[in-house]
Write a structure and sequence with these properties.
With about 180 residues, the protein is α+β, with helices and mostly antiparallel strands. About 35% of the residues lie in helices and about 20% in strands. Strands 2-1-5-4-3-6-7-8 form an eight-stranded mixed beta sheet, with helices on one face. It is elongated and about 80 Å long.
């Protein structure tokens, strides 16, 4: 019985020490991870250019953030749609972030007529920081923020420019992932 008690205490001590180590080194600090309800002060490497892409770089009041992959057909559809309509949407920042290959991502952006538009910004997420800022890493994810930086709606894979405009016009897209 004494041997059993010592073994139980040793196992309990191992669990306690393990938990303490886990909570010290691997815990998620709620203040560091964005819950997505506000446009965070993000920082990513610029795609196809030196330097950082940060929230302070954005010029328009409204912002749409798209987390994309160059191989995603839904991303291709949204990018092509936006490429044809970008000049009419100058009052909205469109921020495209990817964690995928820089060369492929740059080719994707240039092939969809997005490159060179003054209100379109492109970032490379080499450190998987998107999750810390926005709370999700689904491809594609589209986050629509109003002029006060408040999340209006997060759309799923089938988002279109029409869905984005519907949300800005006060509606709710039926392609939502979640609303906060």
């Amino acid at each position: 019985m004494e041997r059993f008690l010592k073994a139980a205490i040793a196992i309990l001590a191992i669990f306690v020490v393990g938990y303490l180590l886990y909570s010290q080194f691997f815990k998620t600090d709620k203040l560091q991870i964005g819950d997505g309800s506000r446009l965070p002060d993000f920082s990513f490497m610029k795609l196809g250019a030196p330097g950082k892409l940060e929230r302070a770089d954005l010029e328009a009041d409204k912002t749409v953030v798209v987390y994309f992959s160059p191989n995603c057909s839904h991303c291709q559809k949204l990018a092509t749609d936006l490429g044809y309509k970008a000049e009419y949407l100058q009052d909205i920042n469109f921020v495209w972030i990817t964690r995928f290959d820089e060369g492929e991502s740059l080719q994707f952006v240039k092939s969809t007529k997005l490159w060179g538009q003054p209100n379109l910004y492109f970032g490379l997420d080499k450190d998987a920081a998107f999750y810390r800022y926005f709370g999700d890493m689904f491809v594609p994810s589209t986050y629509i923020y109003d002029e006060k930086g408040k999340l209006r709606q997060q759309l799923n894979q089938d988002a279109t420019v029409a869905d984005i405009m519907l949300v800005y016009d006060g509606g709710v897209s039926d392609k939502f992932r979640k609303t906060r």
